[in-house]
Specification:
Length: 419
């Protein structure tokens, strides 16, 4: 029955059902065939979403929307250009650094991709970069949004596994920076090979001026994450403080947020939050059914029957997560699959916080690989490019992500340095 449910889930996804509804329908059909009272479905949906910590999600989404709608993105881009624009392939490096900064503000890779693709792809094309290359680096660098804190997938992982969100946020800092460096190295190789231009000369006064203009926006995520790390605020309070600070910046300091624009941002926030919460609700229903069917135990037995070597088991877990990331939304994969894999991971000595970073990196790669490829598809839809054309370059950035995953997996100190 568990196998039937998983197969039905994939069929519904391929038929185009929203992932949240596909999760619920698959679980409900399985329950109905086994004579289980379907009143369990709404009860489990409520139970899965009844967590105060999940309130952080709409606040972080709103914070990202507010920052994307104001002059903040322009200031961040100018700062990134001043920092790395002098390197060969400067604008592509600025793309990565901007994504690293923006990751501190939204926690959502899809949101970052939607904003950055509209800004960087046309500008990079004007400077002589292939449009497909610009789309590829924009899509892959947006993945930094689920590694560098604040990260919505890490919040879900923390809620699902009862792991400290503060520790998860701290654990994502070094791997996030490492992943950004990997992207820049790949950029530089392409820039040298294909002769991409330098964006600008390095000028200390320009850097200082750009930093001063971006200082206040950059302080918002620093205060939010810093307050959480120091224990001054809870994750939900930290997200609320960040959203309020971004609102005051746009309305009071810059005055570039009209009432109509603010209303549109709130509507967008509600829609994005609804999508995430429906996925969480559906995942809770399906996860409970699979737990009753003892699928976690079956998967654990299957993996351990293949090998008892901790290194090989770790590699198998990564392969399993990479495969799932190709078909499942990150939120659904975390809620449904992580409870099955975490006991195996802890049995072979992987810290739950370290495992959270491993999970997010794996699912970040899944956001770039078809058929789901949520981030890559977002960039393709906003740029009008075909996914197969963008994959010509994207595959090399995915390779750099995979190398980073292996390093982070087998060097746990990178994730646990601040724990």
């Amino acid at each position: 029955m568990a196998g039937f449910v998983v197969l039905l889930l994939f069929i519904l996804i391929f038929l185009g059902f929203p992932i949240g509804f596909a999760l619920m329908i698959a679980a409900a059909i399985a329950m109905f065939t086994q004579g289980i009272d379907l009143i369990v479905v709404p009860i489990q949906m409520y139970s899965g979403t009844n967590s105060v910590v999940l309130l952080a999600i709409p606040f972080f989404i709103l914070m990202g929307e507010l920052m994307g709608a104001t002059s903040i993105s322009e200031r961040i881009i100018n700062l990134a250009s001043a920092l790395v624009g002098w390197i060969r392939g400067g604008l592509s490096h600025a793309n990565v650094v901007t994504s690293m900064f923006m990751a501190e503000m939204s926690g959502s890779a899809v949101a970052d991709a939607a904003v950055m693709s509209k800004i960087f792809v046309p500008n990079m094309e004007k400077q002589g970069y292939p449009r497909t290359f610009a789309a590829a680096i924009t899509a892959t660098s947006a993945t930094l949004g689920i590694i560098i804190p604040p990260s919505i997938p890490m919040i879900l992982y923390g809620v699902t596994t009862n792991t400290s969100i503060k520790d998860l946020f701290l654990a994502g800092i070094i791997p996030g920076i490492l992943l950004g460096v990997a992207f820049m190295v790949t950029n530089y190789i392409f820039a040298r090979k294909e002769g991409y231009p330098v964006d600008t000369r390095f000028e200390l006064p320009r850097l200082g001026n750009a930093f001063m203009k971006a200082a206040v926006p950059l302080m918002i995520p620093v205060v939010v994450v810093g307050g959480l790390i120091l224990g001054i605020v809870t994750p939900t309070e930290a997200a609320a403080v960040g959203a309020l600070a971004a609102l005051l910046f746009g309305v009071v300091l810059q005055r570039d947020l009209s009432a109509s624009k603010l209303g549109q941002l709130l509507i967008t926030t509600v829609r994005q939050t609804s999508i995430v919460m429906m996925i969480i609700a559906g995942s809770a229903v399906l996860g409970q059914f699979l737990a009753n069917e003892q699928l976690p135990q079956a998967i654990a037995a299957g993996l351990t029957s293949l090998t008892t070597n901790p290194i090989l088991l770790t590699l198998l877990i990564n392969v399993f997560l990479l495969f799932l990331g190709m078909f499942l939304h990150a939120s659904a994969a975390i809620i449904v699959v992580v409870p099955m894999l975490l006991p195996i991971a802890t049995d072979i000595g992987i810290d739950p916080v370290h495992f959270g970073v491993i999970v997010c990196l794996n699912l970040g790669i899944g956001q770039q690989t078809p058929p789901v490829a949520s981030v890559l598809l977002t960039v393709c839809s906003t740029t009008g490019l075909k996914i197969e054309h963008v994959m010509r370059y994207c595959k090399w950035f995915i390779l750099s992500m995979f190398i980073t995953l292996i390093i982070v997996t087998f060097v746990p100190e990178l994730s646990l340095m601040f724990k």
